[in-house]
Structures are given as C-alpha cells and as structure tokens.
Design a protein that fits this description.
Blueprint lengths: L4 H13 L1 E13 L3 E12 L12 E13 L2 E9 L3 E2 L1
Antiparallel strand pairs: 1-2, 2-3, 3-4, 3-5
Length: 88
C-alpha cells in the first residue's frame, strides 16, 4: 500500500465507515518544520468491521499515535500506531 494513493484512500474510507466517532481527545502534539507527532484518544461506537472487531454498536476507545513527515507541502511519510481497542 506504500505510495498507492487509491488503496490508502479506500482503507481510510473503510475505517471511518466502521466507527461512529463521538470524541477525539488530544493527548500530546509535537511539530516542527517538517514533522508532526500526534497522540489522540478516540471514542466511538462500532458500526462495521473495525480491525476484526464486529460492528455491533458497542462503545470502544483507543489511542492513536501518528508520526508524519512533510516534503513540498505534502505528507511524504506517515506511520500510525493504534493501541488495543478497549470495549466499554
């Protein structure tokens, strides 16, 4: 999927369709001229298959850590780490 814009777009669309977001709480954010490190706590309800979890409308929360590098005004590299979902 590296560099495949269509595959990346499709994957993000699937993920956002599978969860009804209720809150995104920033935990930590660091940035500079060519980078961003962003940690957030996401909360919502599962509405579809989400990383193998069934979409049975249960509440879930998880942490996400994004590390991005920028070149020529665009994201040139992105890494994402997801903490394990916690079911409410």
């Amino acid at each position: 999927m590296v560099g495949d814009h269509d595959a990346i777009t499709k994957r993000y669309a699937q993920l956002f369709a599978a969860i009804e977001m209720e809150a995104v709480e920033p935990v930590s954010r660091l940035y500079g001229e060519n980078f961003l490190v962003d940690e957030c706590l996401y909360k919502g309800r599962l509405t579809g298959d989400f990383f193998g979890l069934p979409g049975d409308n249960q509440r879930v929360s998880f942490r996400l850590l994004h590390v991005c590098e920028f070149r020529d005004g665009r994201i040139s590299r992105e890494n994402v780490w997801q903490g394990p979902p916690i079911m409410a």
